[in-house]
Design brief:
TIM Barrel; Beta-Lactamase; 2 domains; eight-stranded mixed barrel; 17 helices; about 45% helix; five-stranded antiparallel beta sheet; alpha/beta
């Protein structure tokens, strides 16, 4: 062995020994698998401080409107001179709104707008789907090099762009910065609560980039659960429509925003965007609240056990596959919050069945899902309904494969010219199970429904749900005599 080979061998051995020391514990056993793995860093991490600044500035400097406060916050957090929104009217750009905070003289402001910004604005360029926003450098009146950016805000009915100028920091010349401030501003047109504004920023990042940093994910989950706990549950009746046997046969629990009594669509959108941890948290919370409120609400009108009618609670397919949700259902039954025979879980057809289990793609998602439902049926004795049939991921194979106890036909089908054929088909399909045919419920029946109650009855419908029967209320109730008479009249004429 020559001197060079000996030197190389010594160097290699020393290098390997150093590596070995990093992976050995005190007992000289390899412990590499005990080392905690580190996640790959997200480029979005570097904008976390900026997002925090936006929120702090928004809270500390309230203005006349949330949108102006947002523009002020963008200026303050970015170290910019001014922020404004331009709208196009008859091919001419004008100022729609602007920050009231400025470090620029009025004459300089006019010069920048007229001579710097407007000449480079081009709709086809700014609203190009292949990019998000443009920037341009300029010198102010003191000769200092500055930058302005222009971002697309809205295309219809009028073009709108946001312009931030007087920037000096190069880290703001990125698409991520543009997405953050544009989503922040647009959310301020609808909300003035800082939690909803911050949530809108994070939702935009998640939607556009797929992944966010770990800390942003956990921050969004905290915001999600905080808002979730502000929601309340209402109850909407399901009506049995036999003319001589007209009665409320069940109730559906519906989540509502206590401020405006509307469905909290932002929560459902967020749950579907962010994945299973969010959907499980949502479904578990609404299950607990709905069943507990129902227990108290029904005491005044359902005094005997035989008077109690079933309660339906919505659930995402993904949640049904998670042990946390199974245990939540088990607990409310064990605690006698509701009896198994009076609990119906409505599986939404607007989202697909889980395609993976333990990170492995399933060969037969429907069969795997059905197996999990059988666990609920055999161990907990509860029942299932298919909700929103006719939209989303609804399919005949899914309906036939799950053998639900209830099938809810979405109101959109009623506006199809072949709605009667579809309704008869669903009845025939569920009726194939002669031992336990599913109840078919038509949802969304109101004064404007294009098919009458009598016609629905003639095509075999026995159950309906919607505002014609009764709007969702915090309490359960009996049909008033006037409502009873009106519904019976509609069935007979």
């Amino acid at each position: 062995m020559n001197q060079l080979q000996h030197s190389q061998q010594s160097t290699s051995k020393q290098y390997l020994d150093n590596i070995k020391l990093e992976f050995l514990d005190e007992s000289e056993e390899v412990s590499i698998f005990n080392q905690q793995a580190k996640y790959l860093h997200s480029h979005l991490e570097y904008y976390e401080d900026f997002i925090d600044k936006l929120i702090v500035k928004f809270k500390s400097n309230p203005y006349s409107t949330a949108s102006i406060t947002a523009l002020n916050a963008i200026v303050a957090a970015s170290g910019a001179s001014k922020c404004l929104v331009l709208e196009n009217h008859e091919s001419t750009w004008g100022i729609k709104s602007q920050s009231n905070y400025t470090e620029i003289k009025a004459e300089d402001f006019e010069d920048v707008i007229t001579n710097r910004i407007l000449p480079v604005i081009n709709n086809e360029y700014i609203f190009n789907p292949a990019q998000f926003g443009i920037y341009s450098r300029y010198n102010d009146n003191q000769g200092t090099s500055k930058v302005f950016i222009a971002l697309p805000i809205k295309t219809v009915p009028k073009y709108e762009i946001m312009v931030v100028f007087g920037l000096v920091a190069s880290e703001y010349l990125t698409e991520v910065y543009g997405k953050i401030i544009s989503s922040f501003y647009q959310a301020s047109l609808f909300y003035n609560e800082v939690e909803l504004l911050e949530a809108s920023i994070l939702d935009s990042l998640k939607f556009n980039y797929g992944f966010v940093s770990s800390s942003l994910y956990h921050k969004r989950f905290d915001l999600f659960t905080q808002r979730l706990k502000q929601m309340v549950m209402y109850f909407e009746p399901v009506l049995h429509i036999e003319p001589e046997d007209l009665f409320i046969s069940g109730w559906e629990a519906l989540a509502r925003n206590p401020i405006n009594h509307t469905a909290p669509s932002d929560l459902f959108t967020a749950a579907e965007l962010w994945g299973s941890n969010f959907t499980v948290a949502l479904d578990q919370y609404f299950l607990d609240v709905a069943t507990e409120l129902y227990r108290h609400a029904r005491k005044s009108v359902q005094r005997r056990a035989g008077d109690v009618v079933p309660l339906s609670v919505n659930v995402y397919p993904e949640s049904l596959m998670r042990m946390e949700y199974f245990e939540a259902v088990r607990k409310i039954i064990k605690d006698k919050v509701i009896s198994p025979r009076n609990l119906v879980l409505e599986i939404s057809e607007k989202t697909d069945l889980p395609q993976f289990a333990d990170g492995i793609r399933l060969k037969n998602p429907l069969q795997n899902f059905k197996k999990q439902l059988l666990e609920y049926v055999s161990k907990l004795k509860i029942r299932f309904a298919i909700d929103d049939f006719g939209v989303g991921y609804a399919s005949v194979s899914r309906l036939a494969g799950l053998n639900p106890s209830h099938v809810k036909i979405d109101r959109e089908l009623l506006y199809n010219h072949s709605s009667d054929i579809i309704i008869r088909f669903v009845h025939d399909l569920v009726g194939a199970n002669n031992l336990n045919p599913a109840k078919v419920i038509v949802e969304g029946i109101d004064e404007n429904t294009p098919i009458s109650l009598r016609s629905l009855r003639e095509v075999g419908v026995s159950y309906i749900q919607g505002h014609l029967v009764g709007k969702p209320q915090p309490e359960v109730y009996r049909l008033s005599q006037d409502k009873y008479d009106d519904l019976k009249k509609r069935l007979l004429h």
